[in-house]
Design a protein that fits this description.
Length: 70
């Protein structure tokens, strides 16, 4: 379990909620909840993870090409 902690300053709950949502987004909790909402077969999981890895690699290559000016 990931422990996410936010301090409420000066009874400003709205600001604390915004900070909490941002932290949860950064930690990937919302994405994890969405994935766990329904059962995912192991073969589907492998395919999804493989596709994500390819997407990540292509994005990094695009950024690298843009930075180096090819």
């Amino acid at each position: 379990m990931i422990a996410v902690q936010v301090l409420v300053r000066e009874n400003n709950v709205d600001q604390a909620l915004r900070v909490l949502k941002k932290k949860m987004q950064r930690e990937g909790i919302f994405r994890e909840m969405k994935l766990r909402r329904n059962y995912e077969k192991p073969s589907e999981r492998r395919a999804r993870e493989r596709a994500e890895a390819i997407r990540r690699t292509r994005k990094l290559m695009r950024k690298r090409m843009e930075r180096e000016g090819y």
